[in-house]
Amino acid sequence: MGLIQRAAEALHIHKDRSAASSSAAQATVFDPKKVTVIFVLGGPGVGKGTQCANLVRDYGFVHLSAGDLLRAEQNREGSEYGQLIRDYIREGQIVPMEVTIKLLENAIREALANPKPDAGAGWSDGQGRFLIDGFPRKMDQALKFDESVCPSAFVLFFKCSEEVMLQRLLERGKTSGREDDNVESIKKRFRTFEETSMPVVEMYRKQGKTVELDAEKTIPEVYVDVKKAMDAKFAGTGVEPKTETTA
Predict the structure, then answer these.
(1) CA 28 to CA 112: how far, in whole Å?
(2) Between 30 and which of 62, 77, 150, 152 could a Cys-Cys bridge form, CB atoms 3.0 to 4.6 Å apart?
(3) 3-state DSSP assignment of residue 214
């Protein structure tokens, strides 16, 4: 049994190809009228997590990091596919789609069922808003998530040079304890992002669903741009800041 098949079996993901082909228009798991999903993309070390934390604080989003979910799963006691995930991450490769999407679906369901007391408006009657950080990283992931889990609202794409990202990651590696915060793994991740994730950005750009942000600015400056983009995108929809804090 191959790696992808083993991962799918471990997650109890069973594909009925004949059923899938006969129900192409089947509903997604979550209703996009109630659940808002924003993909947050950018190269490794671009600062996605920092900006997501600001949006969680100010707009009541739940931040789901695909990478964090995978790392937590690989370290979960009794996981049947922890080593599989560990091997993919160490090599700078993309973990099989079935694994990542199922973990995200489970995390969204859990957050909707147990909203935080301070979540603010937009978290009642099955409603919720999510930032998915570092996903989708491949075209098939994007298409599968939009078609089966929940159509995304738009993409926040943070742009930054590889030189700046490398320095940030090496600095983070001094304290992060992450196996992939080393020069060899970082450069593999750069190549993987350019080859597999940029086509995803281009697809959403053609659909008018990409908001591009200059991530080489200071953190407060980037967040000013992020807030402007969020307020413009969600004008009149009820997705508004919880606080007046801007950085």
Answers:
(1) 15
(2) 150
(3) strand
- For residue 232, the tally of other CB atoms under 10 A from its CB is 9
Q: Give Cα 72 distance to the centre of its chain.
A: 15
Write the Ramachandran bin of 108: left for phi over 0, alpha for psi from -120 to 50, otherwise beta: alpha
Instruction: State how far the alpha carbon of 70 is from the alpha carbons of 84, 187, 221, 241, in Å.
Output: 10, 20, 30, 30
Structure tokens at 151: 């159509």
Residue-wise pLDDT for 195-216, tens only, equals: 999 999 999 999 999 999 999 9
Q: How many residues does the chain have?
A: 247
* pLDDT 10s digits, 39-77: 999 998 899 999 999 999 999 999 999 888 998 999 888
DSSP, residue by residue, 30-51: S-TTTEEEEEEEESTTSSHHHH
Longest dimension (CA), the chain: 53
Neighbours of 59 (CB within 10 A): 24
Q: What is the structure's pLDDT at 30?
A: 97
| Residue 22 main-chain phi, psi, to 5 deg | -95, -5
Distance from C-alpha of 101 to C-alpha of 66, rounded to nearest angstrom: 9
The model's pTM is 0.81
Mean of the pLDDT values across residues 168-176?
Answer: 87
